[in-house]
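User: Reviewer 2 asked us to show a designed sequence for the structure in our supplementary figure. I'm pasting the structure tokens here. Could you produce the per-position amino acids so we can include them in the response letter?
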């Protein structure tokens, strides 16, 4: 239904321009319209977007009269004293830098418009109107607060709000939107892909709706910047089918990059969001032996995984002593963090053993694809050596590494993990809270409550989270973390299609939510728009087009981009130019009025531009003037005819004639007299989109001496207007009726208007239909007879289509053992899921790819051209039939052990992968590069290791290994073939030419001839070298050793005594052990480094970036090497000394340090050095660019950012200046 527009038509140079009164529920002041939105409350971002959805913006106050108008309206109407959002943002209150984001101007009205100093200095940057003592004035609030808000739009452009009722059928002789042309709109955007294994294929899909159905193209932006379309014509591996691109055998060299879809029909062209295709990589663990971790019983312990390099992410698992996986779910004192580390809150001697870390390549909250065997690596063992100790009761103490957040920078839509771990005597229990706010409804807890999970995290989930750890009621502690959510841009309100008059002006705003802030661009039919003076202007997220004509028709898109990606929203622009037409809404054939009553005869033709109106009575012009407010018979500004105090002479045929520059049309109806109250203008059927406002008209004609009360019924039940916030009686375009605000699907139904006087009443009714995405499906169940080992048939009842046909359904499955939903059937068309002969509401689809013997729950959601509907309730659990395993083992490897061993390891299948009882494995192995599997061993049980003897002479040879699972139902798939080495032999080589040289007082440099790293020489693979050393002339000396990994010819032995003779020899290492001992050498370490430290250190200003340093030097004794010079070691205060810089000088007592920054505090130590090494460092000295300061009281300084940029209080600076002056006088 078209809602009439209040207008005056001006013709300027043959082009029509329009001025409108404000839309219904908007208030006019001077040349702007204002809307005061109380319900629903919104945060600042959503309020701004809600205004933008109507082409308006949040309030900007530019004049004192405008401020007074806003304040007075609120004083008269806001009895609850709300806080009202405006577009004002505080940038710097101290300098009074407050700006209106709505129109980009600065707030210059002055201090007096603020409530008080407290309001001016409140937290939060958003400017609000709030009630003071006597009036509404300005205050501050946070952007996350939920408040009413004020929208503003110029009177010239207010037609955009009124024309919200114009849709794709406006100007066509049909009300069925599926029968008129529509440009393409994306219903499903493509998702980024991470290829994490040797994938058979990579697939992504975009789905668009349009009439006619759009065609698709896929465009790639390669990593080198080149842009081109991809299809089977460019690469035989590509297959494009209706927006779905499949890439066979994806390869990083050819396929990595950024992609986007283009959908096109005869109306226009749109681009999809960008997606990235990345390829995961996983390096190798270091082959350096891992240092043991020593811990005392009843204390805590931490083992670091030290993972190899990887992209994009890995998951972690640990196993102990090559025979059992670490199970934190069974042992509450053990915790595996997503940082890879293995934690023990309280360790015991039973935990002693060798621990290996397993990493498996995964995607990071993305759509991972690949085989069932993504790359994985296993570390060398780390020995946890637990020493006996006396039991004590201590803790709980939350570790310094917790609370940890994963991923480190969470983004909207990801699954976020908050981890908390306390050390101390068990048992320790955990709980979580959120400061000042309830916990997110998508939050859950796992791993003994140590992990808080937030599914599909949103920006509003940010805040401070608190972990509480306690032991019984006697000991407790807590720690908090502030969670910040960043996001790729997304549009809460998509761009609205515009159906506007030729010659008019269009201002289009889009508003994206993004962290960090986005950069905006505008496109028409897939091509970026540029500014054309006098025609097109673009200011950030605002597009303005002047003097619209037919050539401006097309599909327009606004894009928002930040570091996380680029998103689009699209809308169609239809520039309309056609003569008036009464086809859809002719005048009512017969209207009844009561003598002495009033009646409104509506005239609502479709026309573009808006026509002028003429009314005729029995074919004679009435010569009415629009907007007349005094005559008994008058024409309203919107073209409707109003007759007051009806008399019998008004009975006649009335004709409304509408005319614009493209033509003329008319419609005629008859007015008759009734002898009782009548509803002259009854409600008509109305359609409204979900969350928008519908208006149901109802106007009675009755004698002016009587009073009429209107009552509304919904599905024959009286509506309590005062208690139901969705309903409001009022006037729209001079017609009385019922507003249904923020309409929901539950509001669809029959509405009855009852007009009642003291003597009689009459009724009329119509139906309201709320349009939107499909309602949730119901009754999801699996057909029992169809359940197989890996598939079943799922049935459900479709929900209401809500105005548009359902296009397709999506089925999600939840494995009971995993408790994580995944898409089981994607985008199955509604037509293909209909089974002939069944209830036409029933749908059935085949679900494949299930695990045998595993329980599943299912849920379904549907999609139409309005969008994606809600998910159904989950089904009951259904268990597939037992069958052979469908998953191959992963992490197949091995290769260590005793001489003659071939050790084969793999990751046993998870419980949900077993398929049935009687699990076991077939182990195949053969010499590398042979064609047949000559050896096969059958193992029973869900084991993960097999060791066989291949003979000592077969040391360090390559073998191919493969594992196949089986159970009582049959054999499963083979794993991929892995190549491993048999165990190594102890090397028999002896290292030659071993020589030692003095390095300093506590170190020797040892050199040797490297050994050939060949199988024949090393009996395996060279791991490195070990130097053995001891004091030469000491009886019964202590033998020491130090080792290095890799091939090398020298190494530094440290930790020695000064001026002492040492004996050294060398051995080569492989996995089996150490070689024979080499020849020996003897060497004397140097004498000690300077033991005295420089004193009397003074720092003075030298230049714009330098300081001058003096000191008193040191002397050396007979046990020390002669001094060679001095080192000046300086660093930022607050940083670690290991970040220090050195200035090296000779035997002198002064030096200049360059590169000193202004307003920073530095630390300085001076030391002497010799061939014996670095000497003792001087006392700590603080200085700035101005010179040395005597002392620093850290309690009187404020550290800014992450550097040592200090703002020192005035008293401290004054004191330091006095002390420095005294010191200078003392040394003069």
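Assistant: Here is a per-position design you can include in the supplement:
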């Amino acid at each position: 239904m078209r809602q009439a527009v209040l207008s005056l038509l001006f013709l300027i140079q043959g082009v029509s321009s329009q001025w409108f009164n404000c839309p219904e529920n908007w208030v006019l002041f001077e040349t702007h319209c204002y809307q005061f939105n109380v319900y629903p409350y919104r945060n600042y971002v959503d309020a701004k977007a809600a205004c933008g959805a109507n082409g308006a913006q949040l309030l900007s106050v530019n004049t004192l009269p405008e401020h007074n108008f806003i304040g007075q309206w609120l004083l008269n109407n806001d009895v609850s004293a709300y806080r009202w959002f405006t577009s004002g943002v505080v940038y710097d209150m101290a300098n009074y830098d407050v700006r209106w984001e709505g129109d980009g101007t600065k707030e210059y009205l002055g201090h007096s418009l603020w409530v008080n100093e407290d309001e001016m200095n409140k937290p939060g940057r958003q400017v609000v109107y709030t009630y003071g003592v006597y009036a509404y004035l300005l205050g501050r609030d946070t952007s996350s607060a939920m408040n009413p808000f004020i929208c503003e739009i110029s009177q010239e452009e207010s037609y955009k709000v009124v024309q919200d009722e114009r849709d794709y059928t406006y100007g066509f002789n049909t009300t069925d939107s599926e029968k008129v042309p529509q440009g393409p709109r994306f219903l499903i955007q493509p998702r980024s892909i991470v290829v994490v294994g040797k994938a058979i294929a990579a697939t992504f899909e975009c789905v668009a709706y349009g009439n006619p159905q759009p065609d698709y193209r896929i465009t790639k932006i390669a990593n080198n910047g080149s842009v081109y379309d991809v299809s089977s014509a460019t690469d035989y591996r590509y297959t494009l089918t209706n927006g779905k691109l499949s890439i066979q055998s994806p390869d990083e060299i050819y396929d990595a990059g950024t992609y986007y879809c283009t959908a096109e029909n005869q109306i226009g062209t749109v681009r999809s969001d960008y997606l990235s295709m990345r390829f995961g990589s996983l390096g190798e663990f270091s082959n350096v032996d891992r240092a043991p971790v020593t811990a005392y019983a009843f204390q805590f312990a931490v083992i670091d995984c030290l993972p190899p390099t990887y992209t994009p992410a890995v998951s972690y698992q640990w196993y102990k002593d090559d025979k059992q996986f670490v199970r934190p779910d069974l042992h509450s004192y053990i915790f595996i963090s997503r940082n890879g580390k293995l934690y023990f809150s309280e360790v015991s001697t039973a935990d002693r053993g060798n621990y290996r870390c397993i990493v498996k390549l995964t995607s990071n909250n993305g759509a991972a694809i690949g085989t069932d065997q993504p790359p994985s690596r296993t570390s060398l063992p780390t020995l946890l050596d637990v020493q006996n100790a006396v039991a004590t009761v201590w803790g709980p103490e939350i570790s310094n590494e917790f609370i940890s957040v994963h991923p480190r920078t969470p983004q909207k839509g990801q699954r976020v993990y908050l981890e908390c771990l306390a050390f101390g005597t068990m048992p320790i229990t955990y709980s979580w809270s959120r400061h000042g706010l309830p916990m997110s409804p998508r939050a859950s807890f796992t791993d003994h409550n140590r992990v808080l999970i937030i599914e599909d995290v949103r920006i509003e989930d940010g805040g401070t989270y608190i972990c509480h750890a306690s032991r019984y009621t006697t000991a407790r502690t807590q720690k908090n973390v502030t969670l910040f959510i960043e996001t790729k841009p997304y549009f809460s309100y998509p761009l609205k299609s515009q159906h506007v008059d030729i010659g008019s002006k269009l201002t289009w705003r889009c508003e994206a939510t993004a962290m960090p802030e986005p950069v905006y661009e505008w496109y028409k039919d897939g091509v970026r728009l540029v500014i054309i003076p006098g025609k097109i202007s673009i200011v950030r997220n605002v597009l303005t087009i002047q003097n619209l004509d037919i050539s401006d028709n097309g599909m327009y898109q606004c894009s928002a981009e930040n570091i996380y990606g680029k998103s689009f929203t699209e809308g169609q622009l239809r520039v309309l130019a056609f003569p008036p037409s009464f086809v859809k809404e002719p005048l009512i054939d017969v209207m009844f009025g009561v003598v002495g009553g009033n009646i409104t005869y509506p005239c609502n033709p479709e026309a573009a531009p808006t026509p002028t109106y003429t009314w005729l009575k029995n074919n004679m012009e009435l010569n009415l003037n629009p907007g007349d407010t005094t005559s008994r018979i008058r024409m309203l500004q919107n073209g409707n005819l109003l007759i007051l105090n009806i008399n019998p002479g008004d009975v006649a045929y009335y004709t409304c004639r509408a005319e614009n520059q493209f033509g003329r049309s008319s419609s005629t109806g008859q007015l008759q007299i009734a002898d009782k109250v009548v509803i002259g203008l009854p409600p008509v059927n109305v359609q409204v989109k979900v969350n928008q406002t519908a208006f149901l008209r109802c106007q009675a004609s009755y004698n002016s001496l009587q009073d009429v009360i209107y009552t509304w019924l919904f599905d024959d039940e009286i509506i309590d207007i005062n208690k139901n916030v969705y309903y409001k009686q009022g006037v729209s375009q001079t017609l009385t009726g019922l507003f249904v605000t923020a309409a929901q699907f539950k509001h669809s139904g029959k509405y009855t208007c009852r007009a009642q006087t003291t003597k009689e009443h009459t009724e009329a009714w119509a139906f309201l239909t709320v349009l939107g995405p499909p309602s949730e499906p119901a009754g999801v169940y699996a057909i029992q007879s169809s359940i197989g080992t890996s598939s079943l048939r799922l049935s459900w009842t479709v929900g209401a289509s809500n105005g548009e046909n359902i296009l397709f359904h999506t089925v999600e499955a939840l494995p009971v053992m995993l408790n994580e939903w995944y898409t089981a059937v994607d985008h199955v068309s509604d037509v293909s899921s209909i089974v002939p002969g069944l209830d036409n509401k029933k749908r059935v689809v085949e679900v494949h790819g299930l695990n045998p013997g595993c329980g599943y729950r299912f849920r379904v959601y549907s999609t139409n051209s309005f969008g994606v509907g809600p998910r159904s309730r989950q089904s009951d659990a259904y268990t597939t039939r037992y069958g052979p395993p469908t998953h191959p083992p992963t992490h197949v490897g091995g290769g260590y052990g005793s001489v003659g061993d071939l050790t084969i390891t793999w990751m046993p299948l998870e419980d949900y992968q077993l398929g049935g009882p009687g699990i076991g494995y077939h182990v195949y192995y053969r010499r590398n590069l042979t064609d047949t599997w000559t050896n096969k061993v059958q193992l029973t049980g869900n084991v993960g290791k097999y060791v066989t003897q291949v003979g000592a002479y077969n040391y360090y040879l390559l073998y191919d290994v493969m594992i196949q699972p089986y159970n009582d139902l049959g054999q499963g798939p083979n794993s991929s073939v892995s190549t491993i080495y048999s165990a190594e032999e102890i090397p028999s080589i002896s290292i030659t030419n071993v020589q030692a040289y003095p390095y300093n007082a506590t170190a020797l440099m040892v050199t040797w001839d490297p050994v050939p790293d060949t199988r024949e020489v090393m009996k395996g693979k060279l791991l490195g070298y070990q130097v053995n050393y001891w004091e030469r002339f000491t009886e019964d000396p202590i033998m020491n050793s130090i080792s290095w990994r890799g091939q090398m010819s020298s190494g530094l032995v440290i930790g020695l005594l000064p001026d002492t003779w040492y004996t050294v020899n060398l051995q080569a290492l492989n996995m089996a052990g150490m070689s024979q001992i080499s020849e020996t050498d003897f060497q004397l370490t140097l004498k000690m480094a300077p033991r005295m430290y420089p004193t009397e250190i003074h720092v003075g200003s030298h230049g714009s970036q330098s300081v001058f340093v003096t000191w008193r030097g040191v002397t050396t004794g007979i046990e020390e090497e002669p001094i060679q010079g001095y080192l000046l070691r300086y660093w930022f205060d607050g940083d670690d000394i290991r970040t220090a810089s050195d200035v090296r000088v000779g035997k002198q007592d002064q030096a200049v340090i360059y590169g000193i920054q202004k307003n920073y505090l530095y630390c300085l130590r001076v030391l002497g050095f010799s061939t014996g090494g670095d000497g003792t460092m001087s006392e700590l000295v603080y200085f700035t660019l101005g010179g040395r300061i005597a002392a620093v009281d850290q309690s009187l300084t404020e550290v800014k950012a992450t550097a040592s940029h200090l703002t020192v209080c005035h008293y401290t600076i004054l004191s330091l200046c006095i002390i420095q002056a005294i010191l200078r006088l003392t040394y003069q």
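For the response letter, you might also mention the following. Helices lie at 44-53, 64-77, 117-120, 159-162, 252-255, 1015-1018, 1210-1227. Residues 1-20, 1193-1217, 1222-1228 have pLDDT under 50 and may be disordered.
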